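Course exercise 7: structure representation. Students receive a sequence record and must write out the corresponding structure in C-alpha cell form. The form below is the worked example handed out in class, using Putative TetR-family transcriptional regulator (214 residues). Read each field label carefully; the graders check that inputs and outputs are placed in the correct fields and that the protein name is recorded exactly as given.

STUDENT ID: A-19
EXERCISE PROTEIN: Putative TetR-family transcriptional regulator
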Amino acid sequence: MTAETTGLRALKKRRTREKISNAATRLFLEHGFDHVTIADVAAAAEVAKMTVTNYFPRKEDLALDLAGVFVEMPAAAVRDRAPGESALAALRRAFLAAAAGQDPVIGFSGLPFARMITGSPALVARLREFHDAREQALARTLAEETGAAEDDIRPRVAAALLGGVHRLLFEETLRLTLDGRANDEIARIVTGHAHTAFAALEPALGDYAVRPGG
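STUDENT ANSWER:
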C-alpha cells in the first residue's frame, strides 16, 4: 500500500464522517434530537446504518461530534505550555484565546444548537460524561508532567479545580446563548468571568506544574 493510497483512504473516511455528521446535525435541528433515529441519519447521508455506527458508536456522539477535541483541549494546553509557564497560566491563556475566537468547543454553538442540547436529557447526560472525561485526561497529563507518584492526589485535585472552572464557563456560555445574547457579547462576558475564575485559583495553583526553563 502506497502513501498516496493511505492518504486517499484517510481523506475518504474524513469526508464520510463529515457527511454523516452534517446530515445528523441538520436532522437534529429540524426535528429534535430525540425524534431522529440512526436509520434517519443513514438515509439522509446515503450510507448504511452500520457505517453510521462505525463512525459514531452512540447516537449522542453524532450531535456532539467535537467531543474528542473537547476532552483533550485542557490536557493539550498543559502539554504545550511554555518554559516558565504553569498549568494554570497555560489553561487561562488557551481559554481566553478560544473565547476571543468564539470557539464552538467551549460553547459558542449558536441558539438552535444550544436549545437542541439542553432540550435532550440524553445529550445533557452525555455532555456531563465528556466533562468528567476531560477532567480525568487533565489529571493524567498533570501527573505525567509533574512526575507525580501513583498515590499523589495533587494532580487530581488540580484537575478537579481547573475542570470545575472550565465546566462553569462552558455552562455560562450556554446559558448566555439560550438568553439570546450575541456571540460578541457572550465572548466579552465570559472573558471577564474567566479572568475572575482563574485568578481565584492562583493562590493554590499559581506555582503548580511550572515547566522548567523559564
